[in-house]
Amino acid sequence: MEGRSLDADTQMATVKNIIGVASGKGGVGKSTVSLNLALALSQTGAKVGLLDADIYGPSIPLMLGMKDGSMEVEDNKLQPADSNGLKVVSFGFFADQSNQAAIYRGPIISGILKQFLVDTNWSELDYLIVDLPPGTGDIPLTLAQTIPITGILVITTPQDVASNVAVKAVSMFEKLNVPIIGVIENMSHFICPNCDDKHYIFGSGGAKKISEQFKIPFLGEIPLNYGIMSGSDLGKPIMITDVDSPSANAFRVSAKNVAAQCSIIASNLQEEMESEASDAEPSSITSISENPTS
Ligand SMILES: Nc1ncnc2c1ncn2[C@@H]1O[C@H](COP(=O)(O)OP(=O)(O)O)[C@@H](O)[C@H]1O
Ligand SMILES: [Mg+2]
Ligand SMILES: [Zn+2]
């Protein structure tokens, strides 16, 4: 495969962190978590974009109550839609095309994603959350190879059927040298209205297992909650409608952990670049005396 084009790197330079949200299986709540994390980050004051890259099953417009939303083009750039402070781009906004997505083949799909990434007027963003389709197909691959992403956030449910496939996604991104930000367990437990206890009805430990096996951070557990589901279907995300609920709280905790991991990855990268730069110029003088470790 060809290397990343410098062009794409400069085009995305106004976006500080790009987070791909991946899973092995569909239906684990990847879109739900992407959206509510985006809102949680935004509620801390960060500027946040949300790219619904699930071309085969775009669900973000529905979850935001923007089913009839559309996107404008200005100066040859896509203008993201605005919702609850988020900048949103989704294939679902192109109503006619989304019915036909299933017939598109790899190169076309990759081209569409590249355009959504690079030819969108994101302006300044602290975080761009990219809701990927499940699995290890063309879209996740294109994301990893087109732009400098901060890392991948893996979503799984507690069951082995989900975590065993999530492992495949983690392996693929590791092979591509894309950092893994961490793993979040969704539908982790049920907070019982009768006894207030957490009931781990799907078993427990799916995400912890991945976290230990791959030595990647465990960033949170989101409870199973009726309000999360009904809110999604009605276009009313729980981070907007029920900010004091345990679910919203769980999203806030996860968002904080995600932000912290992004900072760690960024500062590691910075250190790497500085050490490479100083390796490349052995005779450049001033920095050496100032930095005893180099
Ligand atoms: N924590 C949760 N509690 C209850 N329902 C959930 C939760 N997370 C997701 N759901 C529901 O599960 C279904 C699948 O979620 P979705 O985010 O579309 O999954 P994916 O994007 O992985 O396919 C949706 O109906 C959604 O509302
Ligand atoms: Mg989805
Ligand atoms: Zn109980």
Q: In words, what does this structure look like?
A:
The chain has one domain: 3-Layer(aba) Sandwich (Rossmann fold), CATH 3.40.50. Helix 2 (30-43) crosses helix 11 and helix 5 (106-118) crosses helix 6 (138-146). The two termini are 35 Å apart. It has 12 helices and 12 strands. It has 294 residues and is of the alpha/beta class. It binds adenosine-5'-diphosphate (ADP), magnesium ion and zinc ion (ZN). Zinc ion binds at residues 192, 194-195, 197, 199.
Summarize the amount of helix as a percent range.
40-55%
Strand order of the largest sheet: 5-6-2-7-1-8-9-12
Global morphology: globular
Largest sheet: 8 strands, mixed
DSSP strand count:
12
Structural class: alpha/beta
Number of helices: 12
Number of domains: 1
CATH arch. level architecture: 3-Layer(aba) Sandwich
Radius of gyration: 20 Å
**Which CATH class?**
Alpha Beta
Mean pLDDT: 88
Bound chemical compounds: adenosine-5'-diphosphate, magnesium ion, zinc ion
CATH topology: Rossmann fold
Poorly predicted tracts of residues: 286-294
Which H/E pattern describes the elements? Answer: HEHEHEEEEHHEHEHEEEHEHHHH
Strand content: 15-25%
In whole angstroms, how far apart are the ends? 35 Å
CATH superfamily: P-loop containing nucleotide triphosphate hydrolases
